[in-house]
Amino acid sequence: MDEQTRLMHSHTGVGMAGHPGLPQHMQEGTGGTDGDGRKQDIGDILQQIMTITDQSLDEAQARKHALNCHRMKPALFNVLCEIKEKTVLSIRGTQEDEPPDPQLMRLDNMLLAEGVSGPEKGGGSAAAAAAAAASGGAGPDNSAEHSDYRTKLTQIRQIYHTELEKYEQACNEFTTHVMNLLREQSRTRPISPKEIERMVNIIHRKFSSIQMQLKQSTCEAVMILRSRFLDARRKRRNFNKQATEILNEYFYSHLSNPYPSEEAKEELAKKCAITVAQVSNWFGNKRIRYKKNIGKFQEEANMYAARTAVNAANASSHGSQANSPSTPNSAGGYPSPCYQSDRRIQ
DNA sequence: ATCCATGATTTATA
DNA sequence: TATAAATCATGGAT
């Protein structure tokens, strides 16, 4: 804002500060009898112009009107034009084309990618898809989180859009205000359309920098939201009971060699509705934690051993051998040296 | 508020 | 490259 004001003042300054030469100029030119009166007259007007900022609006308006109606006004205007011609050179050189700010582009791209600045619902689903991808395709129990995420994202998007609209409106209002002001002033002092355009550009730049701040904070909010909801590590979810049982069952029934093959991992992943990587993680954690404190897991081990034993018994009593759990082990085979030859497909 | 369980990540190792 | 081991960070119980 201050840039505009400054510039406007400097314009005013150019117009006004150039004046002091004027009376002299006039004085020289007019040697006649009514010259003194005219000089006095113009001196008054100039004095009024110089002090116009100290006056109330109505007063100023009246003075302006008086000035515009004054018979010397065209001459004054011409002089202002001349003065400006001599002093305005510096403005011309400034560049007009503004290269797109890379940071702004980055923010725009991100907002678009997150579905904040894009179309209303399409962006949301894209973000949801990204969410699903980011969360490692973990099971069905996070759909609630996704909807939660979506509502939060929608909130952000709404805030973003209302703010953006507000800025847009404010920018337009301010621009038209300034343009009106300049047009009004152009009756009294020379203002080229190009200067108005420049001013409009300055305003727009200022407002777009405000918009950039909005975009930046929106991006931040989205990032926080993402990390809160979608970073799998932060949003650790225990596997459901069934999955844990399946994994434990496998672990304790293969205690002597709890290293599921790739195929077995895939099978387990499918059964537990988790990824193969999660199966690997689980076995990695389980092995090391079991080894570190066998005592703590003794009860669990016994339980699963008993369960598999029952399963085996049931299976054999039903005469079906095809599905029986393969070579269940008694607890304690891992990590102590294992002499059983329980070789699975590796 | 604190502690423990647990899934994920990182680093080291063979 | 798979695994071991250490570590992180959260969920959930207390």
UniProtKB/TrEMBL annotation:
Location of the Homeobox domain: 230-293
GO terms for biological process, alphabetical: cell differentiation
Subcellular location: Nucleus
DNA-binding region: 232-294
Annotated coiled-coil segments of the chain: none
Keywords: Activator, Developmental protein, Differentiation, DNA-binding, Homeobox, Nucleus, Transcription, Transcription regulation
Highest taxon of the lineage: Eukaryota
GO molecular function: DNA-binding transcription factor activity, RNA polymerase II-specific; sequence-specific DNA binding
Biased composition (Polar residues): 316-330
Matching Pfam families: Homeobox_KN (PF05920), PBC (PF03792)
CDD domains: homeodomain (cd00086)
Domain PBC: 37-231
Region ranges (Disordered): 1-40, 313-346
CC per GO annotation: nucleus; transcription regulator complex
Family annotation (InterPro entries): HD (IPR001356), Homeobox_CS (IPR017970), Homeodomain-like_sf (IPR009057), KN_HD (IPR008422), PBX_PBC_dom (IPR005542), TALE_homeobox (IPR050224)
Assigned protein family: Belongs to the TALE/PBX homeobox family.
Function: Sequence-specific transcription factor which is part of a developmental regulatory system that provides cells with specific positional identities on the anterior-posterior axis.
Protein name listed in UniProt: Pre-B-cell leukemia transcription factor 1
Native source organism of the sequence: Cottoperca gobio
